[in-house]
Amino acid sequence: MRSVDYHDDLKEVQGDAVLAALLSAPTACAPFDRLEWWQGLADCWDSLPLVAVVRDGDQRAVLPLMRRGRQIHCLANWYAFRVAPLFTPAADRAALLAELAADLAGQSPHLVLSPLPDENDETATLAAALRQAGWTTFVEQCDVNHVLPVNGRSYADYLATRSGPLRNTLKRKADKVAVTIETAFNPDSWASYEKVYARSWKGEEGCPGFLRQFAAQEGEAGRLRLAIARADDRPVAAQFWTVEAGTAFIHKLAHIEDARSLSPGSTLTAALLEQVIDRDRVALVDFGTGNDAYKRDWMEQVRPRYRIEAFRAGWPGTWPGIARKALHRLAAGLSRG
């Protein structure tokens, strides 16, 4: 018999051994799928988590959510590359999501779920379950995700496929900075990263405490790859990656503006790619969300990320939102026509 429970205390989730195993390494294959990641988000932004858990015997489905007024959103922010429903092996995914979609009607009249992947039909299956359960459902692309499938290549083989200008830049500037790559968390190196970030073109860090805690956890687990470029012993660029389950995740990168002529960011990216391809032997490099032009220099594929917005049409408060989304869909269709 299927049941749905909601947890605002994430410690409760750990009481379910099957669920706790699903949400911890090595079963969880990305940081965004782990309970400690969700707890960090909830603590840093003082948000009210609502982790939805569907049970059917030994089968589980879980989707990290949070309340925002009368709406329910995914438990995520700009640090998360994606949010997706998670399942135990051999689970009946469609049936479990159908149960969740029906039950969510008693929690909120308005769902806003993003950024969702669809490489394994996550978005399509969830949207179908919501429609079947009576939700008025809209799906739209909200972002992109740049990735590099390694396909068994060495770093040298990969580099040979990059553009001539990029390869020339790396050749000319490689000896302009000294590069270190650390796999254990070092407070002094993290302080250097923070100093570089503060003097870079990037905006103010949203929650530096969350990121530092995450880096420390990844370092303890051996998943951290923190690279610093120095010119005359001064940190001028820094990048924060992690490696897990055959994927390298590029979380943060920054360089000091007055060091731009040294191309320290390109040199760091090349050094880290050599590390993760030749030594860590990853199968995929994930450059996160955002359609920044520099990502196309290094990555080879672009995957869409989606937003599902779903309404209970029987609640009058949702009617303006439904009308707005319907008009937007109509206008998009007319422009394509």
Q: How would you describe the overall organization of this protein?
A:
The structure is a single chain. Helix content is 37%, strand content 30%. Strands 1, 2, 3, 4, 5, 6, 7, 8, 9, 10, 11, 12 and 13 form a 13-stranded mixed sheet that branches. α3 packs antiparallel against α9. It is globular, with a radius of gyration of 22 Å. It contains twelve helices and 13 strands. The chain is of the alpha+beta class and 337 residues long.
* CATH class division of the largest domain: Alpha Beta
Counted beta strands: 13
From the N-terminal CA to the C-terminal CA, the straight-line distance is 47 Å
Percent strand = 25-35%
**Uncertain residue ranges:** none
Largest sheet: 13 strands, mixed
Percent in helix: 25-40%
Q: So what's the overall shape?
A: globular
Number of domains: 2
Gist?
By secondary structure, the chain is α+β, with helices and mostly antiparallel strands. The chain has helices at residues 10-13, 17-22, 35-45, 93-104, 122-132, 155-159, 164-173, 187-198, 208-221, 264-279, 293-298, 319-336, and strands spanning 3-7, 48-56, 59-68, 71-74, 86-87, 110-116, 136-149, 178-182, 224-231, 234-244, 247-255, 284-289, 301-311. Strands 1, 2, 3, 4, 5, 6, 7, 8, 9, 10, 11, 12 and 13 form a 13-stranded mixed β-sheet that branches.
